[in-house]
Amino acid sequence: MSTAVEDAFVGVRFGEETNLTLCRSGGTLFARGDRVVVEVEGEPVFGHVEQSPMPIFKPCQKAGAKLILRAANDDDLAAHDRKRQRDDAAKLFVQERARALQLDLKVARVEFSLSGKKATIYFTAEHRVDFRQLVRETAQRFGTRVHMTQLGARDEARLLGGLGVCGKTLCCSTWLKEFRPISIQMAKRQNLSLNPSKISGQCGRLLCCLAYENDQYPSGKKGQPGPAPGAEAS
Predict the structure, then answer these.
(1) Annotation: CATH topology of 78-151
(2) How far is CA 109 from CA 94, 119, 132, in A?
(3) Maximum separation of any 2 CA atoms in the chain, in Å
(4) What is the pTM of this model?
(5) Residues of each domain in the chain carrying CATH 3.30.300
């Protein structure tokens, strides 16, 4: 049973996203597994509490936390089910219309808000694309405002998730918050195979994890990590 408490912070998962979003409880106690409705960019979004409480390490994290509007009820759950069906139907529609309009883009995901008033089309494209006609047709077909969001290859991998060559869930879709510049020199410095299939991620770009131990390999000492902090050289 919910009890009025001081504002606390919990981790909420939206849909199939692997990253948790920090949310303010709004003075209500939520436990792991609770279904909630959160305000995101002025729209209600359905999610599940996955971590309660969620630790806060920086003041800026509190400032960026989303507000939980309420515990989700049966009407919210039904609306979420309808939303998922519309997401799938809209993705197929957008893919078909993009082909018909000969637009050189790849549709990663179409996502409606819980209210159904807004739809976001996530896509990737190598070159500039005039998608105005696609937006008009999609808005007319589904009776909603349509927003196009272009993704980079790494952003697409973060959005869709999946498994890396290591067999674990992608770092970018679980805990990695920022993409660091990655270069082929990092692989050379660590004496790794330069076979693209070995050092490229699901996004087709160089593995983000090439940067994790890069600082431990000083230039001119390929394949040989530097001494641990505080250790004496022999």
Answers:
(1) GMP Synthetase; Chain A, domain 3 (3.30.300)
(2) 10, 10, 18
(3) 73
(4) 0.65
(5) 78-151
Whole-angstrom Cα distance, residue 68 to residue 46? 10
In the chain, which residue ranges form alpha helices assigned H by DSSP?
59-64, 74-100, 132-142, 153-160, 184-189, 196-199
What pLDDT digit, counting tens, does each position of 58-90 carry? Answer: 777 777 889 999 999 999 999 899 989 999 999
In tens, the pLDDT along 127-155 reads 888 999 999 999 999 999 999 998 887 77
| Rounded Cα–Cα distance for residues 173 and 150 (Å) | 17
Lookup: tokens for 142: 């589904």
Four-residue CA torsion sign, 158, 160, 164, 165: negative
DSSP 145-198: EEEEEE--HHHHHHHH--B-TTSSB-GGGTT--SPPP--HHHHHHTT----HHH
DSSP bridge pairs for 171: none
